[in-house]
């Protein structure tokens, strides 16, 4: 039988690409270069000198650039150090001023409380103290629970050089803890000493957590005053399971303890937004007098 192309019956196949590659791994250019090298026809002396000169110039240029970069870095270091020290001094001064203002505010608050008690009667003072304790404007004391959570290990990423933040405690984690304590019957809650009120906020600002715009740092202690079984309710509830999962998966530290006697300071007083004098009942016009005037 003849082949379809009219040949002698034997099929001929052109070698495929892989076969050609393995049989002839060097292209003609490489083959010619190898042949010249074998015959001793390498680069001439002039060519070698040109290549050597270019290499020397390249190395010299790189060295010059490195020297300039080093000099610029060392020259700018004193200015950066001075700016860093100035910022540190400013932060420390602001912290000192804040502490002094806070102490002055506490003294004025105590004076206002004393004057108010002098003006009010015993029953009114007792009622006012109860309301202040409920709203967080007065210190409270009693038994309760303490929930402590802290950042876990944060290794450095070998590719980016940044620390992995999965094991960092977030503002939402503290929100879970405080809400669970309120739901378990807590009467007062504080985060790292910052008393919470109905208008308190727990927010994230970069890597810092702010409670009522004041920074708190790890480990975070959420202390609450409430019923005797407050710690057990938290531990056995959904929040306890949530923090145990964070501990297992990310290494975030977690602990719940019962407190027999704890005192929570008062929260920072709210800002006065509006005030108006009260109208005595006798001076308020009655509907009948308005009608007579209109007639």
Give a quick summary of the entry.
50% of the residues lie in helices and 16% in strands. It is elongated, with a radius of gyration of 40 Å.
Characterization of this structure:
With 295 residues, this protein is α+β, with helices and mostly antiparallel strands. Among the domains are: 18-89, no CATH class; 142-154 and 165-264, Alpha-Beta Plaits. The chain has eight helices and eight strands, in the order ααααβαββββββααβα. It has helices at 17-23, 28-38, 45-119, 122-135, 171-183, 230-236, 238-250, 287-294; strands at 140-150, 188-191, 194-195, 202-205, 208-211, 214-216, 220-225, 253-264. The strands form two sheets. The protein has a five-stranded antiparallel beta sheet. Strand 5 and strand 6 form a beta hairpin. Mean pLDDT is 80; it is low at 1-9 and 287-295. Belongs to the UPF0749 family. Residues 142-167, 268-295 are annotated as: Disordered.
Assembly status: single chain
In the sheet with the most strands, the strands line up as: 3-2-7-1-8
Q: The CATH topology of the domain at 142-154 and 165-264, please?
A: Alpha-Beta Plaits
Task: Supply the CATH superfamily name of the domain at 142-154 and 165-264.
Answer: Protein of unknown function DUF881
Order of helices and strands: HHHHEHEEEEEEHHEH
CATH architecture of the domain at 142-154 and 165-264: 2-Layer Sandwich
């Amino acid at each position: 039988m003849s082949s379809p192309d009219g040949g002698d019956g034997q099929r001929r196949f052109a070698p495929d690409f892989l076969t050609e590659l393995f049989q002839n791994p060097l292209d003609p250019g490489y083959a010619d270069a190898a042949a010249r090298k074998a015959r001793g026809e390498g680069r001439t002396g002039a060519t070698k000198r040109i290549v050597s000169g270019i290499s020397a110039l390249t190395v010299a240029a790189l060295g010059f650039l490195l020297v300039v970069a080093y000099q610029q870095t060392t020259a700018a270091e004193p200015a950066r150090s001075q700016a860093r020290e100035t910022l540190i001094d400013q932060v420390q001064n602001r912290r000192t001023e804040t502490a002094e203002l806070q102490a002055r505010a506490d003294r004025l608050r105590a004076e206002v409380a004393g004057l108010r008690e002098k003006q009010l009667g015993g029953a009114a003072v007792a009622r006012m103290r109860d309301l202040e304790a409920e709203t967080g404007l007065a210190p409270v004391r009693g038994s309760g629970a303490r929930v402590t959570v802290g950042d876990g290990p944060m290794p450095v990423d070998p590719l980016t050089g940044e620390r992995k933040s999965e094991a960092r405690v977030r503002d939402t984690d503290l929100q879970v803890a405080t809400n669970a304590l309120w739901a378990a019957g807590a009467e007062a809650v504080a985060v790292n000493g910052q008393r919470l009120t109905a208008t308190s906020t727990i927010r994230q600002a970069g890597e810092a957590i702010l409670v009522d715009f004041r920074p708190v740092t790890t480990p975070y202690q959420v202390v609450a005053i409430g019923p005797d079984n407050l710690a057990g309710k938290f531990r056995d509830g959904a929040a306890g399971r949530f923090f145990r999962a964070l501990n297992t998966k990310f290494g975030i530290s977690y602990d719940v303890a019962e407190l027999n006697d704890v005192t929570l300071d008062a929260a920072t007083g709210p800002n006065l937004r509006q005030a108006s004098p009260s109208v005595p009942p006798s001076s308020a016009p009655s509907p009948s007098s308005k009608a007579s005037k209109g007639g």
